[in-house]
Amino acid sequence: MTPRVVVIAAGSHIFRAAHIPAIAEAGVHVAGVYDADEQRAAEVAAEHGWEASADLDALLAVPADAAVVCAPHPLHADLVRRCLAAGRAVLVEKPLAPRLSDIDRIIAASADAGVPVAVVHQHRLRDEVAVARRMLRDGELGRIHRALVVASYPKRSVYYTDTPWRGTWHGEGGGVLLNQGLHDIDLLVHMLGLPSRVAASLRTVAHPIETEDTADLLLEWDRGFTASVHITSAAALGENRLEVHGSAKSVRISSRGLEVRVARDDFDAFAAAPGGHFDAFPVEDWRLVVESGRGSHADVYADLVAALADGRAPYTTAADARDAVEVICAATIASDDGGWIALPVDPSRADAILDSRIDGAVAPRPSLTTQKEVVR
Q: Are residues 103 and 184 in the same domain?
């Protein structure tokens, strides 16, 4: 049976650019669409031969297997819970929500309804990520020393000024970390688990926005290793990459795929062995072992279809998606405090900081009810 979905915020750029091709590739049937901007909904519906609903209640009354949510970040929590209350499984764009308190309410609502929530973290489905995680799980890297994330998403300022909700605390709930960098933070915790504490410097370097456009984080795990993270939309830094370095091997994930660098001797053994003061550590060159593959919106839809058919959880659940947001909340608090912030984060403390930033914003708040400027 062909799976059926209904779509909320069908006029958004992310739905048009990424979801529509993925829906076609995955063989999913769109049973209805809705957008608070009725004209946009009508245009999308007419273009693809779909039915447009005049309001959300009407959409959620349409028989369907799942609802797709592509609205601005701060609207996700209420929309997802309305879908769950209607008995619909949900696929929601990242981030699941800017507030940990809202994410916790979504997790509870999903459990109470017995209905799954899947989150679009498509990079988790990349072939190279799966192999790297297996290597870490099996201990192939030896004792982990450190990790590194460098990611730049260079933007013109018009990216923000043309779309009033971007770069605002009220409209987006965060800056480059929550929008673009969420994928990088998510992969880091997907590989290594949640850190025990976070320190951070968040700042606005180039763009006329309220939120940060540049972030530097230092993360520490109880297992004795650290990670440094640099994410920005205010510079062009070359290829984005995630590296994990161990005593026996190192892995690097980039647009090429998974590269591995093998030590000819475990570093702990090398350090303890007799020898010269300036002996070089014997290590091979980086070698590509898995070419980049999968990790698209179509893969997310295929996983959702399989999960619904098999009665299993989707690959990235609401609980899974919480981890990266918690790290970002910890970084926001740490940047304000100027010190280390331990995890778990108190959701009420993170909420209070976001509320204070919304209240302290100088510019008028963008409207989040019309969705007329929903462009990612």
A: no
Average pLDDT for residues 148-165, to the nearest whole number? 94
Same domain, yes or no: 285 and 300? no
Domain count of the fold of the chain: 2
Segments forming the whole domain that contains residue 246 = 124-292+324-360
pLDDT reported for residue 370? 37
pLDDT at 309: 95
Q: How confident is the model at residue 178 (pLDDT cuts 50, 70, 90)?
A: very high
43 exposure class (CB count in 10 Å sphere: 0-12, 13-18, 19+): middle
Predicted confidence band at 363 (pLDDT cuts at 50, 70, 90)?
Answer: low
Predicted local distance difference test score (pLDDT) of residue 373: 37
Specify whether 188 is located in the same domain as 236.
yes
For residues 255 and 309, state if they share a domain.
no
Residue 371 lies in a domain: no
Question: In terms of domains, do 10 and 113 share one?
Answer: yes
Ramachandran assignment for 220, one of left (phi > 0), alpha (psi -120 to 50 degrees), beta (any other):
beta
CA dihedral 373→161→217→246, nearest 10 degrees, is 70
Q: Are residues 258 and 168 in the same domain?
A: yes
The SS3 assignment for 86 reads coil
With contact defined as beta carbons under 8 Å apart, do 338 and 33 qualify? Answer: no
pLDDT tens-digit readout, 255-287:
999 999 999 999 999 999 999 999 999 999 999
Residue 30, SS3 per DSSP: strand
Q: Cβ contacts of residue 210 below 8 Å, gap of 6+?
A: 167, 168, 169, 204, 357, 361, 363
Report the predicted TM-score, pTM, of the whole model to 2 decimal places. Answer: 0.94
CA distance 124 to 317: 12
Q: What are 190's two structure tokens? A: 């997907």
Look at the block and give the residue holding tokens 């529509």.
20
At residue 368, φ and ψ (nearest 5 deg) are -110, 5
